[in-house]
């Protein structure tokens, strides 16, 4: 069976751009015919799945990008993991979803020592990640069933926020988790990050704020890349699961892996005709074409419309989106949300989970501290048809 050629280290292409926190991708011109669902695409051509997966299983690191709230993306990840495992059972799975402090909990889960409730509680899944664990549990059960090591790749949200606010050099070396300084961002990545940052206005000097934002993103990428690189020293194949913005165009984690000397890598993404019949050139090494999974996706989650960060005594409002529910409530930058539905808040993910689980037309009580004054707000989530 012929081998499929991969780049040893994907180049960092400057255009088109992908904003990490946006849900869509820039549309390319539509072709007369779209690739068929269930098909793998490699360099714009249909690829034999068996030959492709066999070649991928010989990479040192394979990255599977996702949109966190898309169930179809997690199903694709599970199927791809199973295919890779059939070719190389001596594999490990790295997770963006949990910080390194959660590694003992992941080890206990794989060893069968925790049930689901115990795992979610001890890993602080909602506090650290906040996205629906039900989307990830099939993958976690697959790893447990096959006794595949799971790796916590991330740093804590609190450390990422400190880096964004204070800069990498302000973090004491003993608090850096032995993460080496990241290599600088490519021009294309800086442009993509600048576009993201522009959607979250800051009260500080825009140029200084952007530099800190880029620095925090690079440390995030570096932490995951270093975790993957370290694991690949002892494991033939390491597969990383992370947001697609960390892997597209060779930016982010692939760029940091190359700097760490990990050359045998591959980036994979799911793709639908909704995005484009002709995917942008260089966006990933291979794409899997999904059909219309809309009927099987959950309803769009509720959103408050704030960017939030960790803070003592609650979660801090970092910015408020225009024309959002948060703006209509009068929330402002630097407000401290201390409680939601009568529950004290410790992590941003806890508020994210509560908001996401609200049904249309319901009300979520919020307790907000502003300039030392306590205020009670009622966030009323609109009906799906927009009726208040």
Automatic annotation (TrEMBL):
Coiled coil: none annotated. Pfam families: Cofac_haem_bdg (PF04187), PDZ_6 (PF17820). Keywords: Lipoprotein, Signal. It comes from the Bacteria. The keyword Transport does not apply. InterPro entries: Cofac_haem-bd_dom, PDZ, PDZ_6, PDZ_sf. Residues 302-372 form the PDZ domain. It comes from Halomonas mongoliensis. This is ChaN family lipoprotein. Residues 1-31 form the signal peptide. SUPFAM superfamilies: EreA/ChaN-like, PDZ domain-like.
């Amino acid at each position: 069976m012929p081998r499929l050629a991969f780049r040893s280290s994907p180049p960092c292409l400057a255009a088109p751009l992908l904003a990490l926190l946006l849900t869509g991708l820039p549309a390319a011109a539509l072709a007369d015919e779209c690739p068929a669902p269930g098909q793998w695409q490699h360099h714009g051509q249909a690829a034999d799945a068996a030959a492709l997966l066999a070649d991928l299983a010989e990479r040192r690191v394979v990255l599977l990008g996702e949109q966190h709230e898309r169930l179809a993306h997690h199903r694709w990840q599970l199927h791809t993991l199973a295919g890779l495992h059939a070719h190389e059972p001596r594999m490990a799975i790295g997770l963006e979803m949990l910080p390194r402090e959660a590694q003992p909990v992941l080890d206990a889960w794989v060893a069968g020592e925790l049930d689901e409730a115990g795992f979610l509680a001890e890993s602080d899944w909602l506090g650290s990640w906040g996205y629906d664990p039900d989307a990830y549990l099939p993958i976690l059960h697959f790893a447990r069933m096959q006794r595949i090591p799971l790796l916590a790749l991330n740093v804590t949200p609190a450390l990422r926020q400190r880096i964004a606010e204070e800069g990498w050099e302000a973090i004491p070396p003993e608090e850096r988790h032995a993460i080496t300084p990241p290599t600088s961002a490519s021009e294309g990545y800086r442009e993509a990050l600048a576009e993201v940052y522009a959607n979250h206005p800051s009260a500080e000097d825009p140029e200084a704020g952007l530099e800190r934002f880029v620095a925090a993103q690079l440390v995030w990428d570096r932490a995951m890349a270093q975790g993957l690189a370290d694991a690949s020293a002892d494991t033939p194949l390491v597969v990383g699961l992370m947001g697609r913005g960390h892997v597209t165009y060779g930016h982010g984690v692939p760029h940091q892996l190359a700097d760490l000397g990990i050359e045998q890598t591959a980036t994979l993404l799911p793709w639908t005709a909704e995005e484009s019949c002709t995917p942008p050139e260089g966006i990933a090494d291979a794409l899997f074409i999904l059909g219309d999974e809309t009927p099987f996706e959950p309803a769009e989650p509720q959103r408050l419309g704030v960017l939030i960060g960790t803070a003592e005594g609650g979660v801090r409002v970092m910015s408020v989106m225009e024309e959002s529910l948060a703006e209509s409530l009068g929330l402002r930058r630097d407000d401290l949300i201390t409680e939601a539905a009568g529950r004290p808040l410790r992590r941003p993910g806890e508020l994210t989970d509560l908001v996401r689980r609200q049904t249309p037309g319901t009300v979520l009580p919020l307790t907000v501290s502003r300039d030392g004054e306590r205020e009670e707000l009622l966030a009323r989530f609109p009906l799906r048809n927009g009726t208040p």
